[in-house]
Amino acid sequence: MIKASELRDKDVIDINTGEKLGNIIDIEVNLEEGRVEGIVIPKETSFLGFLIKI
Prior knowledge:
The chain is mostly beta strands. It has one domain. Helices cover about 5% and strands about 45% of the residues. It is built from one helix and five strands. It has one helix spanning about 5, and strands spanning about 10-15, 20-25, 25-30, 35-45, 50-54. It has a three-stranded antiparallel β-sheet with strand order 3-4-5, with no helix packed on it. Strand 1 and strand 2 form a beta hairpin. The longest helix has 4 residues, at about 5. The protein is elongated. InterPro entries: PRC-brl_dom (IPR027275), PRC_barrel-like_sf (IPR011033), Spore_YlmC/YmxH (IPR014238). Pfam families: PRC. This is PRC-barrel domain-containing protein.
């Protein structure tokens, strides 16, 4: 098992293309079911930086 704090700053890789999508900056956890619902990584843009949830 891994701690949530250990996930922070881990690389997120698209398994189909091998492309690095970014680093985890936050996670969404469903406490009732005890599972991760999603991860948040920064989305790189040329104008403004936004966040995307995977």
